[in-house]
Design goal:
Structural class: alpha/beta
Number of strands: 14
Distance between the termini: 34 Å
Mean pLDDT: 97
Order of helices and strands: EEEHEHHEEEEEEEEHEEH
CATH topology: Metallo-beta-lactamase, Chain A
Strand order of the largest sheet: 1-2-3-4-5-6
Number of domains: 1
Number of helices: 5
Bound molecules: zinc ion
Helix content: 10-25%
Radius of gyration: 16 Å
Length: 208
Amino acid sequence: MLKIKPFILLPSYQTNTWLVYDDETGDALFFDPAAIGTEPLEFIKEHNLKVHAIVITHGHGDHIGGLAYFKKHLDAPILIHEADADMLTDNKKNLSEYIGMPLELPSADRKLKDGDTITFGAHEGKVLHTPGHTKGSIGVLIDKFLISGDTLFEMSIGRTDFPGGSYEEIINSIKTKFFTLDEDTIVYPGHGPRTSIGMEKLNNPFVR
Ligand SMILES: [Zn+2]
Ligand SMILES: [Zn+2]
């Protein structure tokens, strides 16, 4: 059965690092390693998981700070949308320079496009390109789990005032890529609590 586990590796930003895994086969995907930390590694070891990829929902510093550390320890490729790929190695673009914690990160192993598939064991994640928060923001749909990055939050949406952001685009992305999914799809955002597509279609004040 597919399970999902959150880690908070960067408490000052409350970024959600999500681990999606099959508790029978051990196949797993790891999303947005916000900072270094031993807790995910211990969990992965304890549950005998095999992480097939480290998937980045978008290139902001608060989602990628632990990338070098986890790539080394998990020996897994780094996947990010092609439009955000250069943010990994550009500390102006990933904003880390401005918050006084410049990063030194590996580059992408695979650049994603809309509609791409991320395979882990018998499971598949489907890449949904959702520009607006950044040019290369993505959501990843795995069965009824949607990893939504900083595009859609509980009762809110991502900021669009950073470079590459667009209010029109984020609204369009949410309407066309997320709100067309089944209403019982559970949304696991980049910050804050989980929600569902049905709840957000009813209640989200930004998307009508
Ligand atoms: Zn962001
Ligand atoms: Zn964020």
